[in-house]
Amino acid sequence: MNGSSRSNSSRSSSTTANREKQETLSRSDILTDTTEQRAVERMFENAIQACADLAQHIASHDFDFDGNTSKGAIRVLGEEGVIDEQTMNTLVAAVGFRNVLAHEYGHVDYAEVYETLRSGLAVYDTYSQQVAQWIRNNQ
Predict the structure, then answer these.
(1) How large is the average pLDDT for residues 78-100?
(2) Structure pTM?
(3) C-alpha–C-alpha distance, residues 60 and 15, integer Å
(4) What is the DSSP letter of 67?
(5) With 0-12 CB in 10 A as exposed, 13-18 as middle and 19+ as buried, what is 128?
(6) What angle do CA 73, 6, 57 make, to 5 degrees?
(7) Where are the alpha helices (DSSP H) in the chain?
(8) So what's the pLDDT on residue 76?
(9) What secondary structure letter does DSSP report for 106?
(10) 105-111, long-range: CB within 8 Å, 24+ apart, which pairs?
């Protein structure tokens, strides 16, 4: 199995695990169970960081972005038509959320985390699809 297949398999397993967590985690669990809180935080950190890393790569490689901020790279993808404005705005906000989680910049509201888990995961699929379409169109 080559690295690409392994990577795709890993992503697929991660996506499946995220969906299972989304479907099975109760509001009470996220509000009271520290282990569940940390697991969900880590899931969000990983998903958001993966989007940011890809944005940094595309923005610097294809659009001469010389900045070093994830938000800036995501904005470049929006401005250049790689992703739509709604996806751009959602991911820029998600990077701020990731910073709170990863660097403990502020208080984490687990009721909000639960709502995002229940309804806000589609942006990661949308982002992946939009980037994949842009790559297909620009090969």
Answers:
(1) 94
(2) 0.80
(3) 27
(4) -
(5) middle
(6) 15
(7) 3-24, 27-32, 34-63, 70-79, 85-103, 110-119, 122-137
(8) 97
(9) S
(10) 108/37, 108/41, 110/30, 110/31, 110/37, 111/27, 111/30, 111/31
